[in-house]
Amino acid sequence: MPRQAARPVITRLLQRGLYGAPLAAVAALVVGPLAVMVMVSFWTRTGFSMTPDFSLAAYSTFLGSTRLDILFRSLWVAASATLIMLLIAYPAAFLIARRVRTDAVRTVLFLFAVPFLVNYVVRTFAWTEILGRSGWVNTMLLNLGVIGAPLDWLLYSQFSVYLGLITAYMPFMVFPIWLSLSAIDPRLEQASWMLGETPRQTFWRITLPLSLPGVFAAALFGFVGAFGEFAISTVLGGTGYQLLGNSVISALNVINYPLAAAISTFSVGVMGVLLLIWFRVFDLRLFLGKIMGRT
After folding, report:
1. How many beta carbons lie within 10 A of that of residue 98, not counting itself?
2. Is residue 236 pLDDT above 70, yes or no?
3. Domain 56-288: which CATH number of 3.30.200.20, 1.10.3720.10, 3.40.50.20, 3.10.180.10
4. What is the C-alpha to C-alpha distance for residues 292 and 118, in angstroms, rounded to an integer?
5. What is 5-63 written as a DSSP string?
6. How far apart are CA 57 and CA 40, in angstroms?
7. How far apart are CA 27 and CA 39, in angstroms?
8. What is the mean pLDDT of residues 108-117?
9. Is the pLDDT of residue 56 over 70?
């Protein structure tokens, strides 16, 4: 009897060990570096090295210099690019969830994932060949007689930066919106139609509110990616165009690790606030209910 009673206890301990080991590894690999980053942000730079300390000098340098303007620019670019991406991703996800046959949904979603098979830096450099003065767009417009001279604003401009951000992160946003739309019980929309609501009224009063958890999740994907971007702004924005990610790279180039850590900590803090808002406002079980088999 004692041996039989001990078996369930041993089994539970083994199960907890099997579940706990991966979670502990993920926590160590994610939380550990973040903790080191936050700690270094309070250290003091001394020449080409740094001294363990508890100082706000790095944060003071960040918030009291031209990097503050870069912060506001990054917030504006990330927010506006996210809005544009939502305006594209939501109709695409809606068509997939409502118009595409069930047996073809996976194929269509796979097509949205195909660009990620190529490194996004390579895709970003490809835009320079497409948008350049001798690129495909200018060549086509010249051959058609639409323009008389190559367009310079297609590349190394605000337009090219937004285009790079949208093409890089918009496909990410389709998936959570589609997931949220697919989890909506169709009987709710049918009941709305039976009560006399038009399809447009049903969308604004039923479909859109119930899909907001996915919309907010998609917005997080887009905003976080655009807010910390550095490759797209460097390649497509040209010399002098900087976002917050470029400020981190600049600080690392001059071996100012506390400043780079302070900028990164501030960025992570902004993203953490957005995640907290999502968890507080939306019920994650409603977002994943259908996928996890919960109704």
Report:
1. 13
2. yes
3. 1.10.3720.10
4. 31
5. HHHHHHHHHHHHHHHHHHHHHHHHHHHHHHHHHHHHHTSEEETTEEE-----HHHHHHH
6. 12
7. 17
8. 86
9. yes
Is the Cβ–Cβ distance between 54 and 38 less than 8 Å?
no
pLDDT of 290 over the 50 cut: no
Token pair in block for residue 161: 């930066």
Under 8 Å between Cβ of 243 and 233: yes
Q: Would you list the domain boundaries of the chain?
A: 1-41, 56-288
Total-model pTM: 0.82
> Given the structure tokens 């090219």, which residue do they identify?
160
For residue 92, give the amino acid letter: A
Q: Which two tokens stand for residue 290?
A: 């259908």
CA distance 243 to 75: 9
Rounded-to-5 percentages of helix, strand, coil across the chain? 75, 0, 20
- To 10 degrees, the CA torsion angle through 152, 158, 163, 164? 100
Mean pLDDT of 211-240: 87
Mind giving me the DSSP string for 212-277? HHHHHHHHHHHHHHHHT--HHHHHHH-TT---HHHHHHHHHHTT-HHHHHHHHHHHHHHHHHHHHH
Strands 49-51 and 44-46: antiparallel
Cα–Cα distance for residue pair 20/22, rounded to 1 Å: 6
Count other C-beta atoms under 10 Å from residue 134's C-beta: 9
**Residue 221 to residues 60, 80, 275, Cα–Cα distance (Å):** 29, 14, 10
Q: Is the pLDDT of residue 184 over 90?
A: no
CA distances from 15 to 3, 18, 26, 82 (A): 18, 5, 17, 42
